[in-house]
Amino acid sequence: MKKLTHLFIYFLLVCNVLKAQELESQEQVDVFNKSVLHFNDKKYDSAIVYVDSLISVNPNFAQAYNIRGNSNFSLGNYDKAIADFSQAIHLNKKFTEAYRSRAEVYRSQSKYDLAIVDMNTLIELEPENANFYYNRGIIQRENNDLTLSFSDLSKSIALNPKNAMALVARADVLFALNDYKQAKKDLDEAIKVNDKNTDAYKMRGMASYYLKEYDAAVTDYTKLISSNPSPDIYYYRGIAYMEKADYTKAIADFSVSIDKKFVQDGTILYNRAIAYYYLNDYDNSLKDIDAFLKFKQEPYVYDLRASINYKKQNYSAAIDDFTKILSTTPNNIQALKGRANSYYNLEKYDECIADITKAISLGDNDPSIYHNRANCYRAKEDYKNAIEDCKKFIELAKNHPEYSSYIPEIEKEINYLEYKQKEKMLENKE
User: Fold this and answer.
1) What is the residue range of 183's domain?
2) Structural domain contains residue 133
3) Per residue in 101-128, pLDDT tens?
């Protein structure tokens, strides 16, 4: 599952009525207000110029450092931002906005321990502030401390049950814990609070998918598409349609995603190739496989292409693909058996026997594999080994109900092979 990014609840800096003792003149008030206006207009360099001039005449005004810190943070000047927030805190030990902003800078640098220290201070200052628990819960989630993240988010929800973002965030933690049922309950609540929350619908669709509630997943994805037809949602709905075996609709959704350039690592091409495969549209399936292989070489993709080539009776191409698989996983029993069958259809019996023999040595005791090798020996007129493999088939089939009905037929085959063996012996004597 793609990791959700939860942004801090960020309070936009606004121009407040300042207490007279905070600034020494109306001129300083005007300069400060201009810095705030420039910051709000995302003119961060200009905001810094105004703040610098203010600090030069009033170096003890904590709000000025906070404005400059946020401006530097917005410009990616993290070290300068931290220095400014630290100075603001030095001047005002209860400056919650500076703590929160510094924690966000630390978080953006993946310095989670330092961010948590600031969040701990905020919670000590305001122990009933639901947003602070939410913010710390997000940091804990990104730090992969799921237990503490769940605890903080639960506390935030307890303090503010209508916080849809906290409910979605806790659902994300539950996803990481594979508790999709409980995650779905949180998402149901989040949607009740805010039925426009796209993250909640998207995640609930995923939860339904993992719970194998594919109709529910399709319903949520369809609702999202009606208001926000983004390519990733078409992809997720396509996956749900695949599970419903509605391959035509899956292909339609995958195609929309691909047309909208949602190709990523090529996985969507592979999924569409599978859908085409199940519809027996092998030519289009092969096209998607070839396109996927431009992104990365994966054994499972060669396996699908080998299967298609085998069905199309293109046995040489199938052998090439099985060989590619075996070059990286030489003990892949299924690839050995697939290549063996392809060799058999090309009447390359020695190669077929070699692959089957290796598969058996690796532990494959399926009765059918012995009968397949028996057919090779029979084609080579090696009746002795063919008889031995047929007998082995019967021995194993007695413990495999799905094969037991074939025993009488194989017994007749053994009689025929014994006759042919004797006939060949007589011919050799002559």
Assistant:
1) 162-228
2) no
3) 999 999 999 999 999 999 999 999 999 9
